[in-house]
Amino acid sequence: MSVSDLQLQLDSLNQQLEHNPDLTAEDRSNLTEVMEQIQAQIELETVSQDPSIADGVNLAVERFEVDHPTIAGTLRNVLVTLGSMGI
After folding, report:
1. Which residue range forms the structural domain that includes residue 9?
2. What pTM was estimated for this model as a whole?
3. How many domains does the chain have?
4. CB within 8 A of 24, min separation 6: which ones?
């Protein structure tokens, strides 16, 4: 997968965030932070390994798994893309 695939998944996650009123302010803040980290990585267009980004996405998957499975699924796709990019 490419950076453009990751950007598409991030865009999808952003749309889910905008259209999900059930998220608490804390959940929104945590998800926004993870999305900002991913966006920063995309903008740098590096393929250096940064385990903190993958760790942050993993934690977000765990956090959203039960109450927001669609968001968790999109985050899993982000993890797969990051992994295939070597990040």
Report:
1. 3-84
2. 0.56
3. 1
4. none
Count of residues making up the chain:
87
Q: Which two tokens stand for residue 46?
A: 């590096």
Q: Which two tokens stand for residue 63?
A: 């956090």
What is the Cα Rg of the chain in Å? 12
Token pair 């997968």: residue: 1
Give the model confidence (pLDDT) of 44-62 as tens digits.
Answer: 765 555 567 788 888 889 9
DSSP code of residue 23: S
User: Position 68: which residue type?
Assistant: H
Q: Give the C-alpha separation, 35 to 78, whole Å.
A: 10
Q: Torsion angle of alpha carbons 44, 50, 52, 54, nearest 10°? A: 90
Report the C-alpha gap between 35 and 49 in whole angstroms: 17
Q: How many CA atoms lie within 13 A of 25 on its CB side?
A: 0
CA distance 86 to 48: 7
